[in-house]
Design a protein that fits this description.
The longest helix has 21 residues, at 112-132. This protein has two helices and four strands; from the N terminus they run αββββα. It is an alpha+beta fold. Strand 3 and strand 4 (75-78) form a beta hairpin. It is globular, with a radius of gyration of 16 Å. The protein has one domain (16-132). The chain starts with 15 loop residues before the first helix and ends in an 11-residue tail after the last helix. A four-stranded antiparallel β-sheet has the order 1-2-3-4. InterPro entries: E2-CBASS.
Length: 143
């Protein structure tokens, strides 16, 4: 006997207007930002490549990937140094603890500017860690 899978709401980025609006808002910071093909792991999702210059750091090339499985959780990659206690094995940024309250994480309703702010803050914290060996702010230790 087989069961039909129940209705699942489409991801926030499914309507083209949502993707276009997201890209347009990202382009307010970086006019060269563009939609790119999601990495294989996030096939069927939505991804953007942009440049970001956090205060006191050189410009960074950022990729933000959204997957179908977890559409509200961006997977973020940055060029530059990757030595950090808050990177996953694929070198993506570990910005939020999955069980943080909603207010502590980025949500699609917050918009791209807030997401870029979270990314910039994380990259600044990584740089501080590389210079001092201390992580500024709260953290959950990785196993």
């Amino acid at each position: 006997m087989s069961f039909r899978k129940g209705y699942q709401q489409p991801p926030w980025f499914a309507p083209p207007a949502q993707r276009i609006r997201f890209l347009h808002e990202i382009q307010q910071n970086d006019p060269q930002a563009e939609v790119i093909r999601p990495r294989r792991k996030y096939k069927g999702g939505f991804a953007i490549k942009t440049a970001l210059t956090p205060t006191g750091l050189p410009a960074r090339e950022i990729e933000v990937h959204f997957s179908l499985g977890t559409p509200n959780v961006p997977h973020i990659f940055s060029d530059g140094p990757t030595d950090s206690p808050h990177r996953y094995s694929d070198s993506s940024l570990c910005i939020w603890y999955p069980y943080d309250p909603k207010e502590a994480r980025w949500r699609p309703i917050d918009g791209p500017a807030a997401l870029l702010g979270h990314i910039a803050a994380h990259l600044i914290k990584e740089q501080w860690y590389r210079q001092t060996g201390e992580w500024p702010g709260e953290q959950i230790h990785h196993a």
